[in-house]
Amino acid sequence: MTSTAGGNKAAPAGAAAALPRPSLARAWTIWSVASAFYLVAYFIRVSPAVMSQELMRAFHIGAAGLGTLSAAYFYAYVAMQIPVGILVDTWGGRKLLVWGAVATAIGSASFGVSTHFAVAFLARALIGGATAVAWIVSLKLITHWFPSRRFAMMSGLTLMLGNLGALVAQVPLRLLVARFTWRPVTLASGAVILLFALLAFAWVRNDPAELGQASYASEAVRARPARAGRILDTFEMFRYRNTWLILFAQGGLLGPVLAFAGLWGPAYLGARFQLSAIGAAGVDSAMLLAFAIASPLMGYLSDRMNARKPLYLGSAVVAAVCWSAMFLGAGLGLRVFVALAAIASFAASACILGFAFGKESVPERHLGAVSGLMNMGNMFGVMLLQPAIGWMLDRFWSGQMAHGVRVYSAGAFRAGFALAVAWALLSVVLLAFTRDTHCRQMA
Questions:
Q1: How far is CA 321 from CA 272, 302, 349, 431, in A?
Q2: What does each C-alpha distance from 115 to 57, 224, 404 come to in angstroms?
Q3: What domains are there in the chain, each with its CATH number?
Q4: What's the pTM value of the predicted model, to 2 decimals?
Q5: Is the Cβ–Cβ distance between 361 and 240 less than 8 Å?
Q6: How many CA atoms lie within 13 A of 180 on its CB side?
Q7: 7, 18, 178, 435: which has the fewest C-beta neighbours closer than 10 Å?
Q8: What is the DSSP secondary structure assignment for residue 401, as one 8-state letter?
């Protein structure tokens, strides 16, 4: 009737109803391991923001080079979303978590010892490709170990935990870098990540049926077709209008947040408000904290409203208005700017709804692939905005240097962040054309 704890065989469908549900302790433990790895992945993702000067000096690069180096993570991360989505539907999450953590540790070590830009770029790309498993595996495990009515809220909790990692990558990381320099800190983070490979191997199971318990996932989600057929079948997702609209709207919600708090914010705040590196990291922390707090709240409210579109679209409008005021408005004081930044980040957390919205818009057998696709949408924004803003900064650079690093004016940053404002406004237009699922599987 059941398989061993380490196996992948499910109990027969007819017996599922007689099996006990998994304990909350086991479900939360499995979710915690996957989500903790996502926390570390988020920490690595945004870490260049607080050591931008050190990286520019170490690799002898300007803003465009730094933007490219940071975006190497996202290039690989985005490229791996659909493959990881397919693999999580065929292999299961446990194997992906183990190998993803091992590869991330190798990439972190390589980045920490690199002395050439090309090596550092490849190391960041390896990290991005490896950590691509964290979010998708977390969503997959939620589907198997928790009731479907909890999907949006649990997704929000996962995103909140990831943003706690981003918070650690602000003031605490800045202090560590100032004390130990960036290379030892990077190497230490790689060593910590190896722990998650061991935890995933020991504790994580793909489905409760592996422990002789009843799964919360439907038969369609638990089925594992041949990989070749799965790849071809995945293209069916693109037949649904919401898929395209949400895919490109996601980038305008999360992209500006990570382009600012994940890389360019400290330099911009120094140029416009003369804030120190620690002070600027504090502002970024306020943004990320607002984002983290709002993530589970957005999922909870959407579930209670029994609707996706109203909250999703309304939040996109608020975020777009705030970004426009922050970067296109003149004469804003620091306090007003920080308040607007926090509100924009709070509203941008509605991107978490894109995963439930997307999942409900396509046949449920595409859970892993559509989760990967929606996450691609999230990363499109930061992947394109970080290097694009860097390119604009170099274009508007006045020639000023300080301690061997280029210095950019507030006007140059304003030109760069106009790109983020444009994408935020585009997201509002795209979401206006989506069809609400009312929290039901529509396809």
A1: 20, 22, 15, 15
A2: 11, 44, 17
A3: 23-206+223-432 (1.20.1250.20)
A4: 0.71
A5: yes
A6: 13
A7: 18
A8: E
